[in-house]
Amino acid sequence: MIETVTFPELTVIGCMVETSRDDLPAAVAAAWERVFAADTGTAAFAAVSLPEENGLQRRLVGFMAAKASEIPAGMVRVDLDAGRYLRTVQDGPAAGIADGFARLQAHAEANGLTLSGIALDFGYRPGLPDGRHELHLALAPQLPALA
């Protein structure tokens, strides 16, 4: 099931990965190891996919935090504006996550919705076991129509 949800401003602190598409899986796995090894005191882990920049894939892997939280050494903070997202749940192997995002993308295209290029994945846990992931694609802000 795909639904539209609204999030308030979100803050994620973690390790930024900027690399080629081919090197992305290994770089993201290494970043998760660093995040899980840090003493963050949280279990609210998240991955944020950001728009490509200079031909590089960009991912922040980390944890949800309050905006005033201290940023651990070697990590960065990303603040995401409040907004609307398409949401679905993907249960099972991590290999199915890409299929979940593809379903969201297809839904947006079929319904004439414009995406912002930001994706969220909540569901990562230490050891990266298979399980439930909440997947989100941010909708681009829409200007009100004038009558």
Span from first to last CA? Answer: 33 Å
* Coarse shape: globular
Helical content stands at 10-25%
Cross-sheet strand order for the largest sheet: 1-6-8-7-3-4-2-5
Count of alpha/pi helices? 2
Overall number of domains: 1
Structural class category: alpha+beta
Largest sheet: 8 strands, antiparallel
Task: Give the helices and strands as they follow along the chain.
Answer: EEHEEEEHEE
How large is the share of residues in beta strands?
A: 35-45%
Based on the structure given, which CATH architecture is correct? Answer: Alpha-Beta Barrel
- Specify the CATH class: Alpha Beta
**What's the rounded overall pLDDT mean?**
93
- Our Rg estimate from Cα atoms comes to 15 Å
The CATH homologous superfamily name equals Regulatory factor, effector binding domain
Count every beta strand, where a strand is a DSSP E run of 2 or more residues.
8
The low-pLDDT segments are none
Give me a quick take on this structure.
The chain has helices at 24-37, 97-110; strands at 3-7, 10-19, 45-53, 56-64, 76-80, 83-90, 115-122, 133-139. The protein is an alpha+beta fold and 147 residues long. The protein has a single domain (3-139), classed as Regulatory factor, effector binding domain (Multidrug-efflux Transporter 1 Regulator Bmrr, Chain A, Alpha-Beta Barrel), CATH 3.20.80.10.
SSE diagram, text form:
Blueprint: E1 3-7, E2 10-19, H1 24-37, E3 45-53, E4 56-64, E5 76-80, E6 83-90, H2 97-110, E7 115-122, E8 133-139
Antiparallel strand pairs: 1-6, 2-4, 2-5, 3-4, 3-7, 6-8, 7-8
Features of this protein?
147 residues; alpha+beta; Multidrug-efflux Transporter 1 Regulator Bmrr, Chain A; eight-stranded antiparallel sheet
